[in-house]
Structures are given as C-alpha cells and as structure tokens.
Amino acid sequence: MKRVTGIGGIFFKAKDAPALQAWYKRHLGIDVQAWGGAAFDWTDAEGKPVAGTTAWLIDPQESSHFAPSSAPFMVNYRVEDLHALIKALKEEGCQVLDKIDDSEYGLFGWVMDPEGNKIELWQPPQGQ
C-alpha cells in the first residue's frame, strides 16, 4: 500500500491573520480568498491543468483547527486509501484521531506525530 503520495496543503497560524494574508497577496501575488487561503491548481509544463490542487491557509492564532496540537502549523498529506492507512497506523500504535470526515472535497483523517503535531491525511475525490 502506498502511504503519502504528496502534499495536499500547508496551514499555519498568524498573530494577525488578515494582515499576513494581505501581505502574501500584495507581495507574493497569492490569490487569498475570503476563507483565508488559496488553492493552487496543478498544471503541466505548458500550463495546462492536471488533476490536483494544493491548499494554503493562514488561520488566526486563536483557531482550534489544529487541536489537539499546540503547533502553529499543520501539513495535509495526500493519500490513496485513507481507510487502509488509518488501519495500518492504528496497528502500528500511532495516535490516530477517531474521526474521518467525508465531504465533497474527499476523505479526511488525522494522526498525531510523536512530537504532538497534528497531521491531516486527505484522500481526494476520484479524478483529483
């Protein structure tokens, strides 16, 4: 079984999220949306879209999005088979959070690394 196949997103907290979002938009040209982040669609060498997106988000410092981790960041990793990976991680003694979200964006599960960082595992919908 393949485990992680790529990075699906990078999420981090900021003391002043709106100001930092504006800085990234102005100085780096990132198309920050009202939800606080941007979606980078994957393209080939000619700029033609291919199946895949990487999310990027700046959360307010007070956000509980990364709980139970106290880290100011979370990485979202793409996986091929979330249920099989969650099962394997549990069998290996990893701290897996007992929740799987199923949404229009795919399946999401979470595991804590040995240093207490929350890791998001994402199985995109078919074709992505």
Automatic annotation (TrEMBL):
What is any Pfam family matched here? Glyoxalase_6
Name residues in a coiled coil: none
Q: Which Gene3D superfamilies match?
A: 2,3-Dihydroxybiphenyl 1,2-Dioxygenase, domain 1
The VOC domain covers: 6-124
- The highest taxon in the source lineage is Bacteria
What is the protein name stated in its UniProt record? VOC domain-containing protein
> Which source organism does the UniProt entry give?
Geothrix edaphica
